[in-house]
Amino acid sequence: MPTSATQVPDIGSRRNTGVVATRMTSARVVGRGTELAELEAALADSAAGKPSIVFVAGESGVGKTRLLAEFERRARASSPPARVIGGDCVELGEGELPYAPLVAALRPLAREQDPVVAALPEATRGELGALVPGLAPARSGVPQVAERDDAAQGRLFEALLALFDALGREHSMLLSIEDIHWADRSTRAFLSFLARSLCNERVLVLCTYRPDELHRRHPLRPVLAELERNSAARRIELSPLNRDELREQLADILGAPPDADLLERMWARSEGNPLFTEELLAAGLDGRGGLPPTLRDALMVRIERLSEEAQELLRVLAAGRRLDESLLADASGMETGQLRAALREVVASHIVAPGDDGFYRFRHALLREVVHDDLLPGEHAELHLALAKALERRAEEQGTGVFLTAGIAHHYFAAGEQAAALASSVEAADAAEKVHAHGEAAALLERALELWDRVPNAAELAGMDRIDLLWWAAADHRADGDFARAETLARRALDGVNENEDPYRAAAIMELIARAEWSLLRAPDAIETALQALALLPAGDKSRERARLLSFLAKCRMLQGRYKETLELAEEAIEAAERADDPLAEGRARNARGIALASLGDVDAGTSELRRAVSIALEREHIGELHSAYANLADALHLAGRTREGLAVLHEGQANLTKISRPVPWLNLMIGEFNWALGNWRVAETVMPASERRQGGTRELFYLIMRATMDLAYADEASARERLARAEPMVSESTEPQYISPYGVLMAELYLREGDIDAARAVVERSLDRIEFCTEDLSRIVRLAAVGVAVEAEAAERCRDLGEDPSRALLNAEMMLARVQAASEAGWPVERAWLVTAEAQMQRARGESDPTAWGLAAEAWDAIERPYEVALSHWRKAEALAFAGDRDAAAEVAGGALATAHELGAAWLENELQGLVARARLRVERVGDAAEPDEAPVVEDEDPFGLTPRERQVLALLAEGMTNREIGDTLFMAEKTASVHVSRILSKLDVRSRTQAAALAHRLGLERDQRPTSA
To answer: Is 927 exposed, middle or buried, given 0-12, 13-18 or 19+ CB atoms closer than 10 A?
Structure first.
């Protein structure tokens, strides 16, 4: 990148080079053509709706910043020009300054009052305003929930993604983040979110980092391991320049080609590091004499040549990292004229660069590190103390914010002012919470805890005792997703509480422990902890602690499908919440009670209770609770067969959530699920995300299960298997029937298609064992058990086809049917549909597939608007009719099912039906072309396949498992003649093997009464 032509000393005698260096750096980027081409390809991909994250890794001084600057220049100059925003991470302790690069990237948008931002929905702008107030006023007036909002950071991330999407709508958007080895926790979390969330936005994210900074336990290591495995991620490793490239760099700086001696000396000294080369030149060195042994020493040579005022200014800036002129003057104590002269000197020396925002920073991070590391201990403490006080004065003038408070806390801590560091760390943690930076808040609180025993009046300074501080830190860790650390700190807090003297405080801390245990998938431990906490409190008291514990337990039991226990706990929780005037606990309890009532059959009472939960959450704008209440209300209606009502609830929920926040992805997944059930498959596809990259946690599990369902219907078994394999670890750790049951159903279907009946049987039995033990979630039990009957029907058919004993399969089918009958005793619509389907499958298992039974199943599914299940039932009905010899009726039913399958896009069912039509020679009009009948010839004799009487006899013996020799002996023909008959039979039946021919003969009754009688 070009710089001003500041004169520097001749770096070698004129007899060696004959040239004078006229620049500090080369005017153009040298030796990075391949890397720039790769970045430009990534930008082109983003313009085509293929977003990606690119990581540029390289040692200090190798040219990452120069490459990034050149690429940004090219991106702005491209046609059409890309939108470029960016910022760098600040080394300010471990995670003290949340979202530093994002705030830097967004500040220009706020200053310019960008119209793209103004066009965003008010709720989105409100979320962004919490981070950068200039973008929009932060949302105010929202009642504060006496509990951290675990979903708040996710909403902020979604708002940022919406902004990036809008910025890239007309032209590509480039977001650059430098030095992510210093990234704060929230920035790292946002990068992880982006990696799994970007789908078709025209966005390119470019990050730089130093691999040599990543020690074994560096927090960026696991993040990079996750991100660089992502298919949307690329990594570019920057290497030092080779000799030819170094020659080119020297020639550009010097204005003429370097001689061979100079090139070799610089190569030996710099080893191709561009920054080291520039600094050797800028320091007036050419590789001769007593050279600095390291790049850091070379940098110090330049710095030490500056005036004392300029060096002092650099020391202040090294401690402050990024300061404006006012802060520099305040912290340094320099007069205005003296300060500006020093600023001109360091800027002219290309050590410091002024930013468009009025702040000064070092041109290269390594320059700052060198100056800061050179500070004497006394200087270090003095400078950081001066900066802390200067920032405090700034805060008094302009008001506090997360960045000022974080800076104050950092500088007091770096200065060794322990009392001030403790107080300011607590204040900074509170500010970090306001922008949903729970990880940074937790880190700041842990620093305060570290200082606690060193400060005499710690409780007074913190405004709380040590137990509350531990409790607060634990809550922030939990909100940040670090459930293990949350549990550890909460237990330390509990150790300091006397349960007999202060049972309410102990109970509240134990609730936090229980929630952490639940999140760690230790459901039994979580429930036991909550019960122990509840036992500390008097029955019937009016405390919020008791209301919260009861509502937590009610929700846990609801999720486990233990509905009778849920009702008892929820009713007690509602009473306690009303006494304690705790709407949050009341809403949660009514939510759980509503699901329990609906699941036990009283759908109207259940939905009424869920409506009350919605009203409570909506009135107080408890966003997480509102989302949960709408989702459960819709699900209760769907499980009761009232899917259209449930869909209306989901649309209502999204509309209300959009007014106060953002649409909830979970509700979109449910909208897709409900449309799929109703047969609106194209609508479901538009609503469902095209990729799992925007999912996480249980949302990802829900997504994978729904997509696998769709894959199987589309006959894409490979994709279904891959998705179910990713879901398996999450399902195995879950205790919730809503995931265990559909996973078992889908795996059983997949195994059946692959011909592995034993595996299908095993997965059904295993899944039932997991959910039947302590659940009353009948809707999930009945579906799984009904699929179990279908598996056994398939097993019994195969046994008969192979001439084996089907008794085991029949016994298993009867046991599974008994489970279906027990779970559907109440006669609810969905459960009844599964029951009549299972009864039809039982008839099929016995070898007596009944068209009437399958007709009843189709009617039951049609009553609750499940067209795919109707078509599946009609397929089996057509098969049963063909088996009974009623080909005209079979053709009519199969034709209707085929039309439905084609309209839905159900490729698998369409293939099965076409196979049936072909094998049974049914007269069915071709789907999609009603004017043309099926091309398969219709045989008018008694045999639909055109088999001769002799071939029918051969088929009967073949179905018994006889070889060609045995068939010949029985029918008094040559073995070769028998072989010819078998070949013809396979051709007419349109099957590939003797086994398939035997199976078809059994199912359609082609072998009946055809075996020759003995003489």
So the answer is: middle
Q: Give, in order, the Cα–Cα distances in Å from 12 to each of 7, 302, 306.
A: 14, 17, 21
Among the four given CATH numbers 2.40.50.100, 1.10.12.10, 1.10.10.10, 3.40.50.150, the one describing domain 306-374? 1.10.10.10
**Which residues have CB under 8 Å from 327's CB, separation 6+?**
320, 387, 390, 391, 394
pLDDT at site 937: 37
CB-based contact 19:53 (threshold 8 Å): no
Neighbour count for residue 233 (Cβ, 10 Å): 18
CA of residue 775 relative to chain centroid, distance: 29
User: What integer pLDDT is reported at residue 193 of this predicted model?
Assistant: 83
Q: Which one, of 90, 62, 593, lies nearest residue 276 by Cα?
A: 62
pTM, two decimal places = 0.73
The residue with tokens 């946690």 is 697
Which residues lie below 8 Å from residue 736, measured CB to CB, with a gap of 6+? 559, 560, 561
- Domain 949-1004, CATH number (from 1.10.10.10, 2.60.40.2080, 3.30.450.40, 2.40.50.40): 1.10.10.10
What is the topology classification, in CATH, of domain 34-141+149-237? Rossmann fold (3.40.50)
Q: What is the pLDDT of residue 856?
A: 97
Q: Which CATH architecture has domain 700-848?
A: Alpha Horseshoe (1.25)
Q: Which pLDDT score is estimated for 118?
A: 83
Strands 359-362 and 352-354: antiparallel
**In the β-sheet with 173-178, what is the strand arrangement from edge to edge?**
83-88, 173-178, 203-209, 52-57, 233-237
CA dist 785 and 788 (Å) reads 5
Based on C-alpha coordinates, what's the Rg of the chain? 36
CA distances from 1006 to 892, 939, 986 (A): 21, 15, 13
| Residue given tokens 């085509």 in the structure block | 48
Closest among 172, 191, 157, 162 to 84, alpha carbons compared: 172
What's the CA gap between 425 and 448, in Å, rounded? Answer: 6
Low-confidence ranges of the chain (pLDDT < 70): 1-25, 92-96, 137-151, 282-295, 298, 661-663, 690-697, 773-775, 926-944, 972-974, 976, 992, 1002-1015
* Whether the bond into 80 is cis, omega within 30 of 0: yes
pLDDT of residue 858: 97
Distance between CA atoms of residues 701 and 683, nearest Å: 21
Tokens of 67: 């490459």
3-state helix vs strand vs coil in the chain, percent to 5 = 65, 5, 30
Q: Domain 552-687: give its CATH code.
A: 1.25.40.10
Domain ranges of the chain: 1-31+241-290, 34-141+149-237, 306-374, 552-687, 700-848, 870-937, 949-1004
Reduce the DSSP state of residue 150 to 3 states and report it: coil
| One-letter amino acid for residue 143 of the chain | P
CATH topology agreement for domains 34-141+149-237 and 552-687: no
**What 8-state DSSP symbol labels residue 99?**
T
Q: Tell me the C-alpha distance between 140 and 156, whole Å.
A: 15
Handedness of CA 133, 137, 140, 146 (dihedral sign): negative
740 Cβ neighbours under 8 A, 6+ residues apart: 731, 734, 767, 770, 771, 780
Enclosing H/E stretch for 518 = helix 503-519
Q: Report which DSSP code applies to 259.
A: P
pLDDT at 1005: 64
597-602 long-range contacts, Cβ below 8 Å, gap at least 24? Answer: 597/567, 598/636, 598/639, 598/640, 599/561, 599/563, 599/636, 599/639, 599/776, 599/777, 599/778, 599/779, 600/563, 600/564, 600/567, 600/776, 601/826, 601/828
